[in-house]
Amino acid sequence: MHHGLEKAGGILVIIGAGGAFGMVINALKLQDHLASIQGVKALGIFFPFLVALILKTAQGSSTVAVLTAASIVLPFLPGLGLDTENGRVLAVLAMGAGSMAVSHVNDAYFWVITNFSGQELKQVLKVYSMATIWMALTGMLAVYILSLIML
Asked: Which of 55, 79, 85, 111 has the greatest number of beta carbons closer than 10 A?
């Protein structure tokens, strides 16, 4: 039992810290600051992707990244041309793709992979972190192609 707590304890702390960081970002009303930046609306379907990608990279949790990104992106949907049923679905898919990116030492699942694979930290950073970047880019490419069909 001690062995299981040792492995899971650190992961649970990282998840909790990621959730707290997400709440801090929401309290900052980041969407108000982003609205003042020129060119944000020109990003279209890539804006939700980039918001989720940045949040995931910064704090590590895909769940927190998607939930926080959704609260930031929602006010932008009309200006992004995504304020339709299909547009909202595509925005969620784009945020999902962005939330897969750049898994590294602040991501709880990164430590699950590291601890249970028995690989060296450097090796997991090389292989798994790069794989998550490719997963995110491939996912976003699929969302972009869907957006050409659905919008």
From this structure: 55
Q: Is 28 helix (H, G, I), strand (E, B) or coil?
A: coil
Tell me if 40 sits within 8 A of 81, measured CB to CB: no
Q: Are 48 and 23 contacting, i.e. CB atoms less than 8 angstroms apart?
A: no
Conformation bin of residue 26: beta by default, left when phi > 0, alpha when psi is -120 to 50: alpha
Domain limits for position 63:
2-150
CA angle 99, 92, 137 (to 5 degrees): 45
pTM: 0.79
pLDDT tens for the chain, residues 1 to 151: 667 777 677 667 766 766 676 677 667 776 677 667 777 778 999 999 999 999 999 888 888 889 888 888 888 888 889 999 999 999 999 999 999 999 988 888 898 899 889 899 999 999 999 999 999 999 999 999 999 999 8
Sequence-distant (6+) residues with CB within 8 A of 46 are: 94, 140, 144
Whole-number Å distance between alpha carbons of 59 and 14 = 9
Cβ-Cβ contacts under 8 Å for 28 (sequence gap 6 or more):
none
